[in-house]
Amino acid sequence: MYGCSDAKARNEFARTRDGAAMAAIPATLAPGNTVKPCPLRAPLVVTVVGLPCRGKSLAAHKVARHLSWRGESAKVFTVNENATNETLSEISLFFKEGNNVAIIDGMHLTRASRQTVATFCCEAVFHHLLIEFTCNEKCLQENVADTVQFYRNLDQNIDWERRFRESNDHHAPQFEPCSALEGPLITVNNSEDSMYHSVTARGVRGAIQTDILGVLASPVIRQQTFYFSRHGESEYNVLGRIGGDADLSSRGMKYAERLARQLGGPGSAPDCPRPKVVSRNYKSNPKYISTNSIWTSELRRTIHTVQNIPGPRAAIKDLNEINAGICEGLTYEEIQERFPQEFAWRDQDKFKYRYPHGESYLDLLQRVDSVVQALLTNTDVLVVSHQAVLRCIMAYFKGVKPDDVPYINVPLHTLLIVRSYGYDFVVETVPLKVECVDTYRIQPKVKYRIPYRR
Ligand code: F6P
């Protein structure tokens, strides 16, 4: 779209484009009219552009999930073809309620349809970003097959394949790709081979738009399965101590054997699910995905938990447990006794509270971002980590808001299987029935708040 204040570009656009009929320039954008500059933290409207089955919805929801996980307030507004006045009113209301990113998932094939949203943003002083999706023929075939499969599960009486083909043929002649004067713009060219997935950007600015660009830069991998588990019960867990690098308790060792039996180790059924290095769809460059199918932290209790599970492994520092700083190695009772104020502050705002010389959940979320992004370009990976770290990772897949992350229940001796389902993820909880302590500490009711000062 025209930048709000770029009158010269608007005139140029209106005069030149191939002699084609141009969308009328709205009065608010006419040369000479003054427009308000858009503050950096103004809300952002994202308009998705592209023909059917080009990967728009998967990407739109992936972006919304990522932004919400990182503490922004993002929502996908699904429209039939183009945003209508009703959509725009809903978005205004959404922003009035304090939210800040609206993603309009529709085709927006014509310049006029995109201009409607651009004008709305300009008048309301919102940022506007376009994301245009295209894909090669092979990728289109795969997208259609996947979408058909998805809808067939919902209704078998409709010839979905024919419906998608007809929709594509009907809309293709209307498509006016985003012009050089529309922007900020990200174009995503999807390919069935992730090595050829490409993204270009023009005019992108600010942290949120850059974040979106980063999310779109890696391809969406369909049909993903991940396995997550905390380490087996540790000697510190038995004593109620936090942090440290204690080894497994005898029950923790039993869990390591039980987990291996569940995931392809000794005693497991030949057809049981297991972590594996997947080469499907990555033939041209198998190095693109991780060659390690088992990811642990660098701490003994996770490394020993996977010792009987077959598969290449990597110990990753970013999967280490939250650093409790001066409280490492203490029990919660000892922390309350020695550092009563710290203890109270943590209960008041567990997400933002940072242990002196240690970390907060907010820090942790930042730390595991790279792990989550790496997971999303993989499948069939087993991650064995710790309570706080797995809370942060599961928050992504479950769509949990940051403030609730520190209270997600990730019990010991339980396997979590996460499977993608369309643009969603389904989490299956499999308790492996090896006795252990419960390390969950419920959120206490805070009677009065102590000002947080350091
Ligand atoms: O108690 C086990 C443990 O992994 C500790 O090492 C860690 O400090 C704690 O859980 C994190 O949980 P919370 O944030 O609830 O204290």
From TrEMBL:
<dbReference type="InterPro" id="IPR013078">
    <property type="entry name" value="His_Pase_superF_clade-1"/>
</dbReference>
<comment type="similarity">
    <text>In the C-terminal section; belongs to the phosphoglycerate mutase family.</text>
</comment>
<feature type="binding site">
    <location>
        <begin position="230"/>
        <end position="237"/>
    </location>
    <ligand>
        <name>substrate</name>
    </ligand>
</feature>
<keyword id="KW-0067">ATP-binding</keyword>
<dbReference type="GO" id="GO:0006000">
    <property type="term" value="P:fructose metabolic process"/>
</dbReference>
<dbReference type="GO" id="GO:0005829">
    <property type="term" value="C:cytosol"/>
</dbReference>
<protein>
    <recommendedName>
        <fullName>6-phosphofructo-2-kinase domain-containing protein</fullName>
    </recommendedName>
</protein>
<keyword id="KW-0547">Nucleotide-binding</keyword>
<feature type="binding site">
    <location>
        <position position="280"/>
    </location>
    <ligand>
        <name>substrate</name>
    </ligand>
</feature>
<dbReference type="GO" id="GO:0005524">
    <property type="term" value="F:ATP binding"/>
</dbReference>
<dbReference type="InterPro" id="IPR013079">
    <property type="entry name" value="6Phosfructo_kin"/>
</dbReference>
<dbReference type="Pfam" id="PF01591">
    <property type="entry name" value="6PF2K"/>
</dbReference>
<dbReference type="InterPro" id="IPR003094">
    <property type="entry name" value="6Pfruct_kin"/>
</dbReference>
<feature type="binding site">
    <location>
        <position position="317"/>
    </location>
    <ligand>
        <name>substrate</name>
    </ligand>
</feature>
<dbReference type="GO" id="GO:0004331">
    <property type="term" value="F:fructose-2,6-bisphosphate 2-phosphatase activity"/>
</dbReference>
<dbReference type="GO" id="GO:0006003">
    <property type="term" value="P:fructose 2,6-bisphosphate metabolic process"/>
</dbReference>
<feature type="domain" description="6-phosphofructo-2-kinase">
    <location>
        <begin position="42"/>
        <end position="81"/>
    </location>
</feature>
<feature type="site" description="Transition state stabilizer">
    <location>
        <position position="386"/>
    </location>
</feature>
<dbReference type="GO" id="GO:0003873">
    <property type="term" value="F:6-phosphofructo-2-kinase activity"/>
</dbReference>
<dbReference type="Pfam" id="PF00300">
    <property type="entry name" value="His_Phos_1"/>
</dbReference>
<dbReference type="InterPro" id="IPR029033">
    <property type="entry name" value="His_PPase_superfam"/>
</dbReference>
<dbReference type="InterPro" id="IPR027417">
    <property type="entry name" value="P-loop_NTPase"/>
</dbReference>
